[in-house]
Amino acid sequence: MRPRHLLLGILVTLIWGSNFSVIEVGLRALDPFVLTTLRFVFTALPLIFFVRRPAGVPLLAMAAYGVLFGAGLWGVVNIAMAHGMSPGLSSLVLQFAAFITVLLSAVVFREPVKAPQVIGMVFAVAGLATVIHAAPGSASTPGTALILLAALNWSLCNLLVKRFRPADMLAFVVWTSAFAVPALVLLTLLAKGSGPFTALAANMTWAAAGSVLFQAYVTTIFGYAIWNHLMKTYPASAVAPLSLLVPVSGIATSWLAFGERFPSAIWVGVVLILLGIAVFVLAPRLRPATA
Q1: Of 32, 75, 80, 197, which residue is the least packed, with the fewest Cβ within 10 Å?
Q2: Any idea where the domains of the chain sit in the sequence?
């Protein structure tokens, strides 16, 4: 991966780590279904009127991505967090999407997974497991299962990007978000009726509005436009493990912004995750030089 692309990928993961705390702020005022719906309404509007539909991507594929990404990923994450999963633990468990993506890409696209990458994954999984085990906060079995379901849906989104390789990634993110909105509205009506929407005006706060706008324009439009570009450009095994930096960023954000303190085992896990990513990223570069 080119150094510029690597730095952009790291920047995106730092933004995504802080996003879980931003979601928590929004959930203090808004229903999880409504918060997710507003995120994708503002991701699609007003940009959908200024960018053309991405060429070469079938409408069915865009609709599938939108539903999986909006309802299947972030709708499920917000529901899990509203029912007790902490921002830190949610960000941690969701990163199992990195390994699901690598394994599915190896099966579907025959992308090779080399020995150094396997070693890097082993270190990162060990670090992830260490952090999850030692992290403070609640993690119910249903909540953990929901986050793992969201991780699977994120992996399927990554595969759709690799399959169709949209030329204009900004347009792809904007247009697929438009497909996410009807799915989220329907999901809300089926689960809770119209109550969450009718109470929106009364529940909205400045902090919740800031949460929605950050999630829409910074996390989704900026972050996923870059991430999806990397996914279509490089093998999944070179890109997906970068997402393991998300929990590191999430922990650091909680520490800096809210003064949250963590046991020493958390930092051991963070070191293992960083070591795993370093092996993943650097091993392919060092091997030719050594040879």
Answers
A1: 197
A2: 3-283
* 67 in Cβ contact with 180 (< 8 Å): yes
- The amino acid that residue 139 corresponds to is A
Q: How far apart are CA 240 and CA 254, in angstroms?
A: 23
pLDDT for residue 290: 45
CB 178 within 8 A of CB 46: no
- The pLDDT assigned to 88 comes to 66
* pLDDT of res. 289: 44
3 state DSSP class of 45: coil
Alpha-helix runs per DSSP H in the chain: 3-27, 32-44, 59-67, 76-82, 87-94, 97-108, 115-134, 141-164, 169-192, 195-198, 200-203, 206-213, 225-233, 236-239, 245-258, 264-290
The DSSP code for 60 is H
Cβ-contact 137, 80 below 8 angstroms: no
pLDDT along the chain (291 residues), means of 10: 85 86 86 90 92 89 93 86 73 78 84 76 80 62 81 91 87 92 89 87 92 93 88 78 76 70 76 76 55 44
C-alpha 24/C-alpha 267 separation (Å) is 23
Residue reference for tokens 């069915």: 60
232: Cβ contacts below 8 Å, ≥ 6 apart: 161, 162, 165, 166, 169
